[in-house]
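seq:
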Amino acid sequence: MTEVHVLCYNKTMRFLKRYWSLIITGALIPLLMLLAINQLQWVQDLGIRERYRLIQGLHATATQLGNAIQNELGIIPIVFDMDGDEISQSLAKGHTDEFSKRWEAWQSYAQSPDIISDLYILYIDERTASAVPVVWQWKDSSFLQVTIDIQDPSLFMFPLRPGDSGKRFTMLIRVNNEILEQKLIPALAEQYLFGKNDYYFRIVDTVEKNVVYESSNTDSHMLFANPDIRYPLLKPDYLFLFNSLPDMRDPGFETVPAMTILQMRRQSARNQENPDRVAEVFFDRRPPEQRDRTERARWVLEAVHKSGSLKAVVNMFIVRNTIISLGTLVLLAFALIALTIAVRRNQELAERQQDFIATVTHELKTPVAVIGSGADNLASGIITDPQRTQQYGTMILEESKKLATMVDRFLIYSRLSSHRPLEFTRLNLQDLIHSVLDLYKQQLVEAEFRVECITPHPVYVNGDMQTLSLALGNLISNAIKHAREGLFLGIDLRKENHTWAIISVRDHGPGISRQERKHIFEAFYRGSVAKSKQIPGSGLGLNVVRRIIETHGGTVSCEIFGELGTMFIIKLPIPDHISLLSKEAPHE
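struct:
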């Protein structure tokens, strides 16, 4: 039982050691998916916050512009701060010096003094239900009793402070629309809308139904069909509401400013629930969601984003951040997968290197052991017969040649790995093929191979004789080791379009499985059949072939014909001047 547990433990540890990178990757992929889902939710929330930020920015700009316009008229309740008794005495006795001083103060303060075309004083006797309002017009430093329509939308009104007598007077002003729309509003709009290049703005006169100001020459009818905001710049009852605050104060408060601050604070607290209502500063007893901010407003500011709407901006913002976030996660996933593949390849390469070391050690031991044994027998005098001595000497020579060939292969592999340049000369591939076949002639004869060599004409290339001979020799050696059942080796030489020299090495071996074809040119790779049959080899042969041919600017490929065998195809470039010489050669 103990042995079984030990075997299971060792098997589990080997599995974890070999596939730990895949296990970690498999565990991280679900975490990446969960992170992607949370990232999408975060992007949506970020889009909502971006919309609130843009809306609040627009409202802040509109509020500043509205306050600037209102301040031009809002100073009137302060300048003409006279109670009902003072106004009553001025009207009754014709004493207008105080009012004239205040009017002159207004003229010196206002940015556009001529913005007020008419000023009236209105009195309604509240003790009489059917009382007719009495109106006085300020003209030429005196008051004249006149008749006007107090429902005129161009009139702005605000109540004056009641005196001890309880009489209540209301001041009416008529704004000069031409001055307001042509001088004041455009000047203030240019000042407060400067730098807001992402939006189109316009200011509309809701009474005259005309456009007072436009930030750009565009088709405003189509562009502002659905504006992002509509903000009231000035309402006719603004001054009335402004000056009526004292009547709304709580008896517990003694000062108007305290009540004003609390009113503003309460209104601001209500508006925080909806960012679209942040800039609502008009006192209305209806809840914010039921108000129309532009109701009774004479001039309205409209804004629309240049992309079409804030919704489009937010959608683009969400799409862009989604692409960036998901792209980052995808890149992270690909990097994780690539790292896993690299780790697996390094693990496989390490395993192949271990197999290579074991194989090379075994192959080196065999000739060394044979050489050592034969040399020992000769040195100890055990072998005295001249014929036996010659046999031992021949055996030592052959094994030393094998050992030298093996060392040369490793040196060439090292040279190719270091990318040191080769010295090319003009070579005749026909002669090279025959010379390599002569080197393996004895092995082919001993293995009873039938050799078919078709090289009808010389073919010249630029190359290195030693490395090309090694490449062709490796293919012949592989055929001898892996295709013994077929007992056939075929080598063909031909030209393709006078630009390529083609060398084909054919055998009638068992072939290579589909799964192993993509690995046969990798370093230290040995097929499963070679391992199972313990066929000697280092796993470097085909890799060396590929490196040599690629160094010469060519390619090597493998074609499998099922049970009919395998064919390796080497393509080497024929330089232009060699191609021209071969065309002019008499034997061709």
